[in-house]
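User: I've been going back and forth on whether these two constructs are worth ordering. Before I decide, could you fold them both?

Assistant: Sure. I'll take them in the order you sent them. The first construct and its structure tokens:
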Amino acid sequence: MLFLPHSLAQASHIEEYLPHEGIVVSYKQGRWRDVSGLKILLLNLMPEKQVTERDIVRMLRGAGVDIVLVPLKISGQTYKTTPQQHMETYYADFEQVEQQNWDGLIVTGAPLEHLPFEQVRYWPQLCHIMDWATSHVVSTLYICWAAQAALYHHHGIAKHALSDKQFGIYDYRLTASHPLLTDFEPQLSMPTSRHTEVRLAEVQLHDALHILCQSEEAGVGIAVEDRGRTVYVTGHLEYARERLDFEYHRDVAKGRAIAPPRHYYTDATQRDIRFAWRDDALRFYHNWINHLIKPHTMDIEKTNQQFETAMQACRDIFVKKLHDYGAAWRILRPESVTDQIYIKANRIRGIQVKGHAEVDEDISGDFQAIVNYSIVGLIQLELGYGEHSDITAEEATQRYDHHAAEALQLMKRKNHDYDEAWRAMRISSYTDLILMKVFRTKQIEELRGKTLVSEGISANYQDMLNYSIFALIKLSEA
């Protein structure tokens, strides 16, 4: 099921039900958070916004999963070919979504090939969005001009003017194996409509970029980097059957010198169209959603739940000890907190090395203690140590929850950057890393915090906390 802003389907003439392509339903304007499904942003830079909306909806509705599509615009822009009211009603400003993480982002092409990128009026804002996407979006799909813009911004790859417009349906030979190409034949067909290109040889100079398909006639077709976190598509898989026909006759009517689109019409009458890319387009978007976005999002949701469950168990112990002892730990200087973490981590390592414990207690309790001492350390750094138990249990719990929430957000950011590499680590490695952080913290304490490159004591406490939570998750799975 595909969710769109309320009444957008009617405003853009999108059929709400198509056999084999799913149902389109509405959500209240601005209430995308209230709807369950993969959250996909559409930064629509094409001049005829409603046409592009129909194209993208046609691609996404066949993905077989629930998707919430949020049309996105760059604030402060005015529009010539789409009613301003349409944009204000159905499109969110980037600032409204900037603070959240998103499953996907689609950035469309734009008829701006004649301009150097820096002369595009919204270029600074677009660069900001492209940078933001690298840390806030699971996978970003750049189309045509947007692909050239992103390659230029991220890698300095220039676009080059073509003597004749690259215009038609081209077959692209697959050159790599990738989840995006699941169930494809040795080639795919794709509409292309552009006056500029990125050159194959220049793309190949960048090891981070992997070319998935290319054409003898049209060059680079699709490229990816960071295992699909960023996808560059130089053509228009989303185009409807008649789109190139419309563009051709539009340009002819304007007196532009243009040849008929290549490999598009089946005969000289230009009445029958070779709709060769339909299945490839639907398959590509299906793969983008189901092989790049959905699995990663499911892993994230699972990890977030496991993190919160493990943290809640630690919190329960913290609250019970507050009841029994009060905030007696307030007298501990940070050095003493560090030593307490050392004792727990050293015990875990000893048990791991010896293979058994003399005292009948598993190591989960020690990892939970490291979590709680790490948060105690963060509170002590924040408040300074006291001479007695000088805060209430309620205030101590509030501060605990604040630092636990910060730890969760740090974990989410690092999981995004490292793709949950911690899952491939062994529990013994978490122990060693915690001990390493302890010794680093001791050294910083000896230096009285005067470091040259270290992130500081608080960052080390946060890392020890997260390593302990990872260990608890792995132990619970075992």
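The second construct, handled the same way:
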Amino acid sequence: MHVEFNIPAPLGVQAGLTPENACEKTSRILALFLYEHGRISLGKACELGGFNQWEFAEMNREPAIPLTMREEDLKEDMAAVL
């Protein structure tokens, strides 16, 4: 899915967005938001944001979004590892 929207320049600057990094940073912010609100799993958040679970945990240190994992997600992860 392709989504486009306009961000006022002063807000983009304040948020640390540039034309070069806006897509990556907004994807990560969206992934964090959707995960925090229980809309997507940890694995899907990592996929959407383009990071692994360790990077996700590190990113969550500042906003302190609690890491939760549903039992079925844990089973899928364990099956992938074993």
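Notes on the second construct follow. The two ends are 33 Å apart (CA to CA). The mean pLDDT is 84.
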